[in-house]
Amino acid sequence: MSTPVLSAECITVLARNRHQGALTVLDGISFTAAPGELVMVAGPSGSGKSTLLRVLAGIVSPDAGKIQIGHPLQALSMYTARERARFMAFLPQEDNPENPFSVQETVMLGRSPWQPFYGIACEQDRRLTQQVMVLLDVAQLADRRVASLSGGEKQRVLLARALCQTPQLLLLDEPTSAQDYGQQIRIMSTLITLCTVQRLAVVMVTHDLNLAAMYAHRLLLLNQGRAAAYGTPREVLTSTQLEAIYHCSFIVDEHPCASMPRITLSPLLPPSQ
Q1: What is the average pLDDT value for the chain, to the nearest integer?
Q2: 169 pLDDT tier (thresholds 50, 70, 90)
Q3: Which residues pair with residue 21 across a beta bridge?
Q4: Looking at the predicted structure, is the pLDDT value of residue 88 above 70?
Q5: Where are the domains of the chain?
Q6: Region 6-265: CATH code
């Protein structure tokens, strides 16, 4: 495997509550992401997935542990905000709901880290913006206000903005959650192509275990802030493992069209329940 461009080592985050004291949100999480690799993070709601992504993006400071990024790896704190924005892009679950800009203006904002401080777009910026909007099927919405779009359309616009940063590391928090099946496949195929062709490293949070089985190179499964499993989808996505974490029954078998696991939710509770 290539030398990592992201290394998270023993990341611990505490949430302080005046009634209950310090609660552990993340407990000793470690993993890496290399160029050309798609690492997906799954787990039940409240298991710390979004918090982990915010730590990796430098928005939340861990109480313990170390985040390093770059070539060669350096502490995240060594980078200025502008340097960080040139190296990585972060797509949260929610963005400014009152975004006053058009789709084209919003996507163009992804070029800001590369523009002079007075923010004048060049022809290359405009060309890249158009290419990315076509790639994510939002070019026809170019003049629409982002606030007027559906949830899925907004999600693709914000992903386009992140890709316009031309990052080496892309952090995505459920980028397919509001998409129909066709758009999910389009987005995931785009990400895999960027990993393969441009050697982009991607860390993506998802609730969709079948998408993880189809596309992840490695999968980090969280449970109550801890790493329950980490490895290839075939290693991680076992019925025993999933039932212990999600407390419901799963059938995990071989996908009929490809060499990958297929996860089917069963209406039955596990025997232990």
Answers
A1: 93
A2: very high
A3: 17
A4: yes
A5: 6-265
A6: 3.40.50.300
Q: Are 242 and 251 in contact (CB under 8 A)?
A: no
Asked if 190 and 157 count as a contact pair (C-beta separation under 8 A), the reply is no
Residue-level pLDDT at 121: 82
Q: How many CB atoms lie within 10 A of CB 158?
A: 25
233-241 contact pairs (CB < 8 A, 24+): 233/260, 233/261, 234/260, 234/261, 237/209, 237/212, 237/213, 237/261, 237/263
**Confidence at residue 270, expressed as pLDDT on a 0 to 100 scale:** 66
Question: Residue 135's CB: how many other CB atoms inside 10 A?
Answer: 18
Task: Answer yes or no: are the C-beta atoms of 44 and 205 closer than 8 Å.
Answer: no
Identify residue 192 by its one-letter amino acid code: I
Task: Please check the confidence at residue 273 and state whether its pLDDT lies above 60.
Answer: no
Query: Taking Cα atoms as reference points, which of 207, 255, 215, 250 lies closest to residue 232?
Result: 215
CA distance 176 to 78: 32
Q: Report whether pLDDT(68) > 70.
A: yes
Distance (Å, rounded) from C-alpha 42 to C-alpha 52? 11
- Residue 231 Rama label (left phi>0; alpha psi -120 to 50; beta): left
- What element of type H or E holds 127? helix 123-135
Q: What is the pTM of this model?
A: 0.93
CA end-to-end span of the chain? 41
